[in-house]
């Protein structure tokens, strides 16, 4: 049996697969929160890299575009993909 580590996240995560458009790649989220996200891409990033991305979403109140900047704080190479955990540093939500 493995002891669970204490939760260090500030915000609740939501497990959801959403398309992410990055500067030089596209990806799909595994989970998102108000302060960060984890996504899978076919490109590579390194710890400390700055990332700009956008994500569109349709809701009952209309469509919106989330445009953010963030910083990579963990990577997980797996097969031909890379998992990237990032902290959001500049979130902007725009109606479309």
Task: Explain what you see.
This protein has a 6-stranded antiparallel barrel with strand order 2-3-4-7-6-5. It has no helices and 7 strands. It has one domain (about 15-95): predicted glycosyltransferase like domains (Thrombin, subunit H). The chain has about 100 residues and is an all-beta fold. Helix content is about 0%, strand content about 65%. The protein is globular and about 40 Å long.
Give short descriptive properties of this protein:
six-stranded antiparallel beta barrel, single chain, mainly beta, 96 residues
Counted up, domains total 1
Uncertain segments: 1-6
Envelope shape: globular
The averaged pLDDT comes out at 84
- Major sheet summary line: 6 strands, antiparallel, barrel
CATH architecture: Beta Barrel
Order of helices and strands: EEEEEEE
How many strands?
Answer: 7
CATH topology: Thrombin, subunit H
Evaluate the radius of gyration: 14 Å
Short description:
The chain is mainly β and 96 residues long. Helix content is 0%, strand content 64%.
């Amino acid at each position: 049996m493995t002891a669970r580590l204490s939760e260090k996240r500030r915000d609740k995560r939501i497990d959801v697969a959403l398309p992410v458009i990055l500067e030089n790649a596209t990806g799909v989220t595994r989970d998102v929160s108000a302060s960060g996200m984890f996504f899978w891409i076919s490109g590579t990033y390194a710890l400390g890299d700055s990332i700009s991305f956008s994500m569109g979403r349709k809701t009952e109140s209309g469509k919106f575009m989330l445009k953010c900047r963030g910083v990579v704080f963990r990577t997980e190479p797996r097969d031909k993909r890379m998992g990237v955990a990032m902290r959001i540093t500049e979130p902007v939500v725009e109606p479309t």
